[in-house]
Amino acid sequence: MEFRNLIASLPGKKSAIYTFERGKAVQHPHSALHGDVVRARDALRGWGVRAGTRVGIYAPNSYKWLVYDLALIELGAISVPFTDDFAGKIDQQLLDRYNIALLLLSKKDAQLFPQRPAHVAFLDADNQPVTPDGGHLRDIVRLVSADPPFETMDVLCDVTNPLFGPSGAAWIYGRQKGGSDAVLAELDEGLKHIAQVVKAQTGRDVAQMPGAGAAGGLGYGAVAFLGAKLRRGIEVVLDMTGFEAAAAKADLIITGEGHLDGQSAQGKLIQGLCGRSRGKPVIALCGKLSASPQQVKAIGLKAAYSINKEERPLAEMLANTAVNLEKTAAELSL
Description:
Helix content is 38%, strand content 18%.
């Protein structure tokens, strides 16, 4: 019999479930069991539990053990109970021996064992996990999230792009990876869709936050799901290294970039450095230069030079980096 129907078939208000916990019989209303099992099932799915996953439960003689055990049965997972006989003996080696992917603990016992990482599950209309790629973002209709693993989190981020839109993650960074217009449009719509789902279910509306589009949307995920604060990485590094004091004593600042293009003005390291140069001229030497003179000026540079005079195979250019860098530096007209 399906679990939901089994619960519904039990007698009414007088029926109860008893568990024997720490020497005492504890009564629980059976009417709450189904809802508790559904919530436990969703949490387990959000933690990555699937059919066949082996899940350990410490101190199983409790109502919570019953709830999670039933939830594991619904998922087709395998419950492995650890009784009080294992107190003080559970370690990673023991978990590895029994192939335990997740260990469920009470708050009282949590400090004794390693904690699970935070997960967020993305589910489709059939309540199944969505395939984790850009082409399936629009299939997401529901989130199952866990509490953030840290009280505070700072993420260093040196771009200012939002999650979606003309200057978002797909159109700016997907183009660099070779995406066609059709693919980039699909990715952009997918990112917009997931932002709408997150806003509807959590109230978090951070898709247009500067830096949300960093690393393909990783900045957005860190803020929306982990409660992170985005900080400009270049500002942190320059503060830690005492850059401004050194710049004040310099006549000229020379910096480098692998590929200097229009994207380099989107808050990347080189622009942050120019903004803290105390008015001293900054010159960039780069492996490839595709930024226009107007874009170079917008970044804050006095000038930019490619160390490769002509396009060659990447392996060849990398092999000659040191020689070409020295040659280009010697030819600078300052």
